[in-house]
TrEMBL record:
Keywords: Signal
Domain of life: Bacteria
Residues annotated as signal peptide: 1-28
Protein name: Secreted protein
């Protein structure tokens, strides 16, 4: 009887572990950008495309440290963000600038493995939802 109970408990534990690992791998992560008054401008960035009809947000990637920089260009009370996807690992997330346009550049610090391909998109929030600007691929060499 003890062997049967142990087998049932082991099976249940293994099933729970698989479910938890699967959920984590497929999840997207949201990071909130930090105010970076100590360093107000990105040093070396690959500029992203700005808005459809006017520059609402700028964002860029600094390869030294895997830092995403986001600049909210419109003081309208809405957030701006940089959405990323790691095509190599199948992970994704975003860097949300929600501290106000008057704060200037804000940054999120990530740590992607060397050689991974990152696709990123910049967008801004509106009363009718998020508006997107386009995509740019950066290979983390």
């Amino acid at each position: 009887m003890r062997k049967r109970i142990s087998a049932v408990l082991a099976t249940a534990a293994a099933s729970a572990a698989i479910v938890l690992m699967t959920g984590t791998a497929a999840s997207a992560s949201t990071s909130y950008a930090k105010d970076v008054d100590w360093n107000s401008d990105p040093k070396t960035c690959h500029q992203a495309v700005t808005g459809y009809y006017s520059p609402k947000v700028d964002a860029c990637y600094e390869e030294d440290g895997d830092i995403l920089w986001v600049l909210d260009r419109q003081a309208d009370g809405y957030s701006s963000r940089m959405v990323w996807q790691n095509l190599t690992r199948g992970t994704s997330g975003s860097c949300v600038h929600n501290i106000g346009a008057d704060k200037g550049w804000a940054a999120c610090d990530f740590d992607w493995p060397e050689g991974d391909t990152i696709v990123w998109d910049i967008s801004w929030d509106t009363s009718s939802g998020w508006k997107s600007s386009g995509r740019q691929v950066y290979s983390n060499a």
